[in-house]
Amino acid sequence: MLCNLEYLDLGFTDWESMEFTGQPIIKNLQELRLSGPCSVSILFLVHPSLKCLTLNIPRINLSTLKDTLSSTPSLESLALLDAFLALPNSENSDPPVDLASLKLLEMVRCSSRTVQGLLDAIACPNLQDLHLHFTGEVNEARFAAYQIFHPINVTQLELFQKPHLRIRRLDLECCEAEPPFLQKTLDRLPGLKHLRIASAALTDEHLKTLVFERAGAERCPQLMSLTVDNEPEVSSSAIRRIVRSRDEASIPLQSVKLRGFDSARISWEDVELIRSSGAVDLTITVFAEDEVVG
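-> structure tokens emitted (294 positions)
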């Protein structure tokens, strides 16, 4: 009855105790979303036709995930939500899983260890969109109900071992790092067109990496849009320097969105200079009055 189903959304409590033969039960499944604690293999739900896989799983072993992904040669979209990836104690020498069709990878509320573990475990040469929303580290409190989460430091994280030419969109959220992390990451994304950074404890020093200082040293020369959210320590002058330098290099930013800024760090002079430097779509939202300028 389910053999022609194309989309399936299940909580693990719905099927975990079901008997199965170990073979895929849905032959033409295109999109699969699974959520809840997982204590059994999910391979029997996976078919080579699968294009979109979303896993909202508190804990999954790396070996189980790799076995699952190796059965999805047509996978175009992969999302891990609130997931913890259990990595082997010793260094894994197995080759990465080839996901040549993968175009979108999302990891939402995941630790840096989980993010690094998955990126090391897969090869996705045609990846275009990468969205990384990190989870905070728990500050131990006397009562579990009052646990406090802090942005996780990802300075030591190496997202890319070598330049990735096809990534067009990068979204980084809920993390903090020293400026060299952003420099190293963007240096390996020469084809990047859309960059969003949110709640990452940015300062003006971090954003200097996007300023064109001399010919031949351009970073992200194809960048079209820049979105910076919830960064009260960033000033409008830092954004102005980025926008003006790119305009003078004849590759202006088309869209600039600054949301959740400190109004005291926004200058009207900077806003006008940004507006006159080729940014067709300019949005500025400040904390104080939550008003949009431009």
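Confidence is low (pLDDT under 50) at residues 138-149, 289-294.
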